[in-house]
Swiss Army Knife RNA repair protein HAD domain-containing protein
Amino acid sequence: MSTEEKNITSETATAEGAEQIDLVAKEWIQAQTEKEVKRIRDVGSSVIPLKTLNCGIIPNFDNKKPRAINRIELDTNIDLSKVQQIMVSPAVSYPHKQHFNYVNLILVTGQPIPFLAPYLYQTNLKVTQPEREEEGRKYPSKQVILKNDLREYLLINKNGICARFTIHEYHSGILRRQLKSSRFNKYPPEVPPTKLAIFDFDNTLFFSPQLSPTIWSKRFLGLVAAESVWGPGWWRDERSLDLGPFEELKAKAWEGYWNETIVSKARECIADPETMTVILTGRRYHPFHKYIPIMLDSKGLVFDLIGLRPDPESISDVHWIANDYGRKVLTYNVVPSVFESTAHFKEGFIANILHKVKSIESIELWDDRVPHVKNFKIFLKSLRQDGVIRSSKVHGVPGVKPVYNPEWEAGIVLRIINSHNYALKAKYNGARFEYRDVVENTMQIEDDTNPICFARKYLTIVPTEDSTGIRLKNESQARLKSMFEPLFKERMEIYYQKHGHFKGQEEPVFFGKYCMLNERIIRHTCCGFVGYTSRLRIDGISPPGKPWLLLKVTVPKDDPSEEHGHILPLWYKPSDENVFRKLSHHWENIRQEYQTEVEGKITYDYKLNVQQARWDTIRKQRKKEKDRVKAVIDHTYDRGTHKMDHPHSTKNWRKDHRQNNDPYPRHHGPSNKHPYDPTNSPYPDQSSFTGRWK
């Protein structure tokens, strides 16, 4: 073989190898992109993935040290000069070639849905720095490894239009603007503060209502808190603080919703001229800047800074104006969060204040969340060790909730579900999410990036089996309540003397109606089959010192070795539903006057959940839905006495099919309509939805 033939063979092999490497890289990048898109959508946000056509690194020798400009060519017609912010994921090593890293870039524009661009780059790129002259001194050219901090970008679309972008410290910028707009900056103190006092809001300073696990299933509680599934998400939904007529609450300063012990501490700190006092909460600036400052002002609490999480900093362009209840504009969170978590925001907030207010020497903090308290202790300890501050103290506040109000909970949840259904119906009737700035860009968002598409079904609230146990007869319930109530009140007086008690805080409620035998739904229990009547013998009582009163009960059997002890809770706080069941209890012997037996029926306990339904079924079932909710709240629900029309029942389907009014038609070909789309059938109330997309 000649030398020329060898060179050709070598070049061919090299080209084939490069092509194979490129193919491997393409497949790996595609897998990483799909993984990141799924992660973002799973947390309730949305993103539009873009393909990278070409990429590379351009050296910039304008400064003393050369910098890397990341050149990325994207397969899109979008005007990339509209990019307002670039967020970079943590770098991941590329497994198929050394000295290469991979990141995901989130490109935020004026559109409500951001874009995701994959980027694979070299970490050890060597470049020759040209000869230069500085202040009369000449520096010869030399070879250096180009440092790439992923801050400089040259973005190019497939039409060849370029846009330069430099990442600044975005987190710091947001926090600086937050501090600049604060009362502390507008009215600076005469004496520079030496102490920083930080108060959490929810369940620390204010009794924030939450949904009770005594009523709602675990699955439901998780979904209702998720962002942009059935609405903004519980902690981003202003309805979570809708406790009544706003002006009436304002006039009474939200009486009964404050933790007066922490309020007193806050007043002391506010009055101290050497203390900078701030509220620091994970509640988002939008929409709660319209409410929380007014709530604090009505209580006479004038903080130097109200630290609402500015995430996003500006209001979202995507709204659902829910006219079904007249006054709510619901903002969907379709832009990925700037801060990774509430803890990330709070630590950045503290660091920014210490950077700007250098006179601060000590920090004192109040928070109710155990993980946050633990993390704050570690974080502040590191600040002390680095010499940033001299001292710190973190107070773990027992999380206090407001008085149990199941009717309020049911009303709010019904509004959330109803507004979701109306939004979905509006979408199926042609309404779309649109950009707010319709003059600059009138393009509508595609369905796969539409927040309402995260939950494409109409929903109704239904009771679902949650556990198997014994429901006591009414006579047994009344007997236990009258027998143990004096003892319970005596214990709670002692408990409140030690731990304190405030008007409006959550109180233990009598739940002595049901004894759980098994968390699963089973037909045969250790005490008999479902439907059987069973007796319970009281064998023990929980010791004092806790805000509950529990009984140890046993189903009597001929062979004592086959008897099992179970917990029959009489009084406890609704928020403690899943607390006392996980603990090991040291039972006290039952006194003679309390030794008795009670009767009940082996049955299922029910919690409220959601179920897919048709629009006509929802309208017909509204009255029954409220009755079922009330029965679950009262722990009297029984499926035999509360029959439901199942949305998929054969009887209803056949009836609708005969009337040519079938929301689930048997498609004989492709269809662009969703099977739950009410426009598939001539509903008489198609135009009756009340609400619009903005």
